[in-house]
């Protein structure tokens, strides 16, 4: 095994790629966990009086879970492209770090938005069922923020 | 006479209460089954799609590069995920209104 370590392929090149894969899943999972917990408190408070609405009110939790799947997809993509330093230029490490941070922080922001909207929306839906359509629309717009991060991450990954 | 009537109405009320309890239980069970089914679909369908698409596309078209195979698998996984989510929202919106109407009595 010939370890050709040059200035374009330094020994620390894969470090950036590994950090990209880790930050993709860490920050996405952080956002998804916040979204699940915050909307979960809303569901628990609402279900005491209106238990028949549980199926409708699970939607914010599902959408928060999808944020984590975005991070998982990018982390698996980056982890599959990691190589030993001689075949992994520093440039690719930077690209992968950027892709991981893009989906990670977008997922964190989307998870915060889903949590807050889910909490207030589920509590409001229990009192006014016509709010449900509005809650779904706001949740979809929050979800799309994470999807934008995923698109940028995949676009970076193809460079 | 009055005592007998009272007793019979009391027994009838108890039966009604038990029946309502049973109907609540079966309703809860059916809604739990539906939620579990869609949650499993949303969690496992994209993971399955990703790896199946990756293996399948790699087997079929070996001439395209691995990066493109990965991208195709990732896009396919995300698309299947959103289809499953759309099915769940559709079911929650239209299925829940039917169960609410049956509950109104």
From TrEMBL, chain A:
Give a yes or no for keyword NAD in this entry. no
The way this protein sits in the membrane is described as: Multi-pass membrane protein
Cite the InterPro entries for this sequence. Answer: ATPase_proteolipid_c-like_dom, ATPase_proteolipid_csu, ATPase_proteolipid_su_C_euk, F/V-ATP_Csub_sf
Where is the protein localized? Answer: Membrane; Vacuole membrane
* Domain V-ATPase proteolipid subunit C-like as annotated: residue spans: 19-78, 97-156
**Organism's domain of life?**
Eukaryota
Enumerate the UniProt keywords alphabetically. Hydrogen ion transport, Ion transport, Membrane, Transmembrane, Transmembrane helix, Transport, Vacuole
A molecular-function term among this protein's GO annotations: proton-transporting ATPase activity, rotational mechanism
Pfam families this protein is in?
Answer: ATP-synt_C
Q: Would I find Membrane among this entry's keywords?
A: yes
Spell out the GO cellular component terms annotated for this protein, sorted alphabetically and separated by semicolons: proton-transporting V-type ATPase, V0 domain; vacuolar membrane
TM region positions: 12-37, 58-82, 94-119, 131-157
Gene Ontology BP terms: vacuolar acidification
Main localization is membrane
How does this protein assemble?
A: V-ATPase is a heteromultimeric enzyme made up of two complexes: the ATP-hydrolytic V1 complex and the proton translocation V0 complex. The V1 complex consists of three catalytic AB heterodimers that form a heterohexamer, three peripheral stalks each consisting of EG heterodimers, one central rotor including subunits D and F, and the regulatory subunits C and H. The proton translocation complex V0 consists of the proton transport subunit a, a ring of proteolipid subunits c9c'', rotary subunit d, subunits e and f, and the accessory subunits VhaAC45 and ATP6AP2.
Provide the function of this protein. Answer: Proton-conducting pore forming of the V0 complex of vacuolar(H+)-ATPase (V-ATPase), a multisubunit enzyme composed of a peripheral complex (V1) that hydrolyzes ATP and a membrane integral complex (V0) that translocates protons. V-ATPase is responsible for acidifying and maintaining the pH of intracellular compartments and in some cell types, is targeted to the plasma membrane, where it is responsible for acidifying the extracellular environment.
Please state which protein family the record places this protein in. Answer: Belongs to the V-ATPase proteolipid subunit family.
**Alphabetized PANTHER family for the sequence:** V-TYPE PROTON ATPASE PROTEOLIPID SUBUNIT
UniProt name for this protein? V-type proton ATPase proteolipid subunit
Which organism does this sequence originate in? Drosophila gunungcola
UniProtKB/TrEMBL annotation, chain B:
**Region described as Disordered:** 1-25
Q: Which Pfam families match?
A: VMA21
Q: What transmembrane ranges does the database entry give?
A: 35-57, 69-90
| InterPro entries in the record | Vma21
What are the record keywords, sorted? Cytoplasmic vesicle, Endoplasmic reticulum, Membrane, Transmembrane, Transmembrane helix
Where does it live in the cell?
Answer: Endoplasmic reticulum membrane; Endoplasmic reticulum-Golgi intermediate compartment membrane; Cytoplasmic vesicle, COPII-coated vesicle membrane
UniProt topology in membrane: Multi-pass membrane protein
A GO cellular-component term linked to this record: endoplasmic reticulum-Golgi intermediate compartment membrane
Q: What is its main location?
A: endoplasmic reticulum
Q: Which domain of life is it from?
A: Eukaryota
GO terms (BP aspect): vacuolar proton-transporting V-type ATPase complex assembly
The record's listing under HAMAP family reads:
VMA21
- Describe its function: Required for the assembly of the V0 complex of the vacuolar ATPase (V-ATPase) in the endoplasmic reticulum.
The UniProt entry's sequence similarity note says: Belongs to the VMA21 family.
What is the name of this protein?
Answer: Vacuolar ATPase assembly integral membrane protein VMA21 homolog
Q: State the organism of origin.
A: Drosophila gunungcola
């Amino acid at each position: 095994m010939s370890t050709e370590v040059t200035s374009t392929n330094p020994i620390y090149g894969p470090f950036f790629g590994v950090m990209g894969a880790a930050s993709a899943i860490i920050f996405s999972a952080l956002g998804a966990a916040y979204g699940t917990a915050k909307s979960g408190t809303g569901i628990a408070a609402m279900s005491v009086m209106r238990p028949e609405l549980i199926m409708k009110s699970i939607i914010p939790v599902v959408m928060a879970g999808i944020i984590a799947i975005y991070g998982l997809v990018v982390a698996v993509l980056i982890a599959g492209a990691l190589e030993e330093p001689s075949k992994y230029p520093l440039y690719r490490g930077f690209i992968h770090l950027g892709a991981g941070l893009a989906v990670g922080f977008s997922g964190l922001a989307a998870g915060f938005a889903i949590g807050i909207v889910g909490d207030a929306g589920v509590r409001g839906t229990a009192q006014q069922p016509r709010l449900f359509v509005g809650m779904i629309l706001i949740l979809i717009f929050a979800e799309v923020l994470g999807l934008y991060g995923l698109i940028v991450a995949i676009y970076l990954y193809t460079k | 006479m009055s005592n007998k009537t009272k007793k019979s109405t009391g027994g009838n009320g108890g039966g009604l209460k038990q029946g309502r309890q049973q109907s609540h239980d079966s309703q809860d069970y059916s809604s739990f089954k539906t939620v579990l089914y869609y949650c499993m679909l949303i969690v496992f369908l994209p993971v399955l799609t990703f790896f199946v698409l990756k293996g399948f596309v790699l087997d079929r078209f070996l001439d395209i590069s691995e990066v493109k195979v990965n991208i195709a698998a990732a896009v396919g996984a995300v698309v299947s995920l959103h289809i499953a989510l759309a099915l769940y929202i559709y079911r929650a919106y239209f299925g829940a209104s039917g169960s609410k109407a049956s509950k109104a009595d």
